[in-house]
Amino acid sequence: MLTLQDYHLTLHDVANHQPAYLETIFSLANGHFGVRANDPITGNPIAGTLINGFYETAPITYGEAGVGYAKAHQTILNLPDFRHINVATTTGHSFTSSERTKVDLDLATGELTEHYTLQTRQGETIAMSVQSVIGQTQTAFWAVNYGFLAGNYAGGLVVNKTIAVPAEAESLPSADPRKTRLAGLPICETTFMAKDLQQYHVKTRQTKQSVTIYLGMLTTPGSLLRQPVDLSDHTTHHLSYEVYVGEMGQQNTIDPALPFPATALTALLADSRDFWQDVWQRSEVTVGATMS
Fold first, then answer.
1. Residue 36: which H helix or E strand, with range?
2. Which of 17, 63, 70, 190 sits in a 20 to 30 Å window from 38, CA-based?
3. What's 178-197 look like in SS3?
4. Is residue 241 over pLDDT 90?
5. What 3-state class would DSSP assign to 250?
6. What is the SS3 assignment for 29?
7. Residue 207: partners with Cβ closer than 8 Å, 6 or more residues away
């Protein structure tokens, strides 16, 4: 009989290792919002955060009029990529390439653990682990822990993690008239409430929707813009962050004077674990093997 220890999805379980596929199959979501499992260093133009029901609309242009033609299309907005992080040596060499070496999605707890090898253009390498989880009852929260370990480079690092406005490619001509015109970029505002707390507010132009997102650093003392890490002791150094995604239409949904607690990641892991263990204990679905 299967036990909860058997409920794991890894790279060895999937035949397709193309980035777009892995980003989808290892994404985390809870009904309120979802985060694609894109490469946190190189990113992906289609990667980011999707909020349920947060969309934009724009008119469809046809070559000629027709009965029953839709007048407008609706596009789910690609919001900031919560996973992205900038890592550089203290000498200014950025880690611009990465290789995903291991992925483990624990289906019993909802925890996603990944391992990467990072490299600069100068050939310096380090190892980075990424542990992330999304709240299942605390549905406004997503948290992540990055672990850094020396490779052939064992000096100092400078880590920068902020909410960046997503870059959108311009619309290209298409045979499908629904794809020939984008709805336009949303209106984005970013504010640093403190060195370890950033607010990101986005509003759509046509549907008049809005949402406020907060990024808080859990590691103390911490700085979102410039966090030093010393790898000279050849031990793993951890940096933790949490993101709060508010409800649509509510601009101030938390008190920015209250920082995210240092225990937030542990609490969110417990929330997710309790939720999924209850799901599997009540489910007749089997994972990974045949029940005996």
1. none
2. 190
3. HHCCCCCCCEEEEEEEECCE
4. yes
5. coil
6. strand
7. 55, 56, 57
